[in-house]
């Protein structure tokens, strides 16, 4: 069972990279989910429809995952306060810090961008400290 | 054509997130909790993604004059480490540590059925717009 999830990690990672490379190769765009999502609202000039189809693809992807036997988690058992605080901070932080796990963690580090290497180390470290503190408190 | 490729990449990225279990907040929190039953599998996700991304990017994409279907690559132009980067990444890390959810998995989980995911996404969108409103407020105060 343990080995199975390790294999899933490797295969999942390769698919993430192949997907991001495909988008970059053909359209010149970075797969940064927070940036693509935020860009949807910046409609001052013209709506960039590729952002809509990309987000739509993410949303409908579980349908395809299910066909090959992979499902979403049965339930989300985070508390409402964790969901609320988490949502706000993730939105604010990815905006101010110009990226999230996909944009900095995969594409940015993949381009060997120093900014992304620093940002990724930073958010993984603060996330680990947060988990520790929350564990300590509860 | 770019629309179709973006759709295809959105679907495949979502499949990658699902297979690697990044969509499972508990799995993510087990990775972030280094004192518990530490689950290293998400390191492996990133490691395997980068093992493919780094060589292909540097050998193929960097030598490509322009993307196949658009006129230019739109890559981030900033290169300096500034305070917003450090501050923003820290805030994101805190939010990720609290919830175990980051933007990609939030969207993939939208059809999962839990109202919590919908609320998470709405608040995330509000959070993304906070800097804009703070700036508007500041520039109004400075007038």
From TrEMBL, chain A:
Q: What is its main location?
A: membrane
Cellular compartment(s): Cell inner membrane
Q: Which residues cross the membrane?
A: 6-28, 49-72, 78-96, 117-137
- The answer to whether keyword Transmembrane applies is yes
A Pfam family annotated for this chain is: Sulf_transp
Alphabetic keyword roster? Cell inner membrane, Cell membrane, Membrane, Transmembrane, Transmembrane helix, Transport
Q: How does the record classify its membrane topology?
A: Multi-pass membrane protein
Q: Report if keyword Transferase is assigned.
A: no
- InterPro entries reported for this sequence: Sulf_transp_TsuA/YedE (IPR007272)
Specify the superkingdom: Bacteria
Task: Give the family per the record.
Answer: Belongs to the TsuA/YedE (TC 9.B.102) family.
| Name of the protein in its database record | YeeE/YedE family protein
From TrEMBL, chain B:
Keywords carried by this UniProt record: Membrane, Transmembrane, Transmembrane helix
Transmembrane residue ranges: 42-60, 81-98, 118-138
Give any Pfam family that matches.
DUF6691
Q: What's the domain of life for this entry?
A: Bacteria
Identify this protein by name. Answer: YeeE/YedE family protein
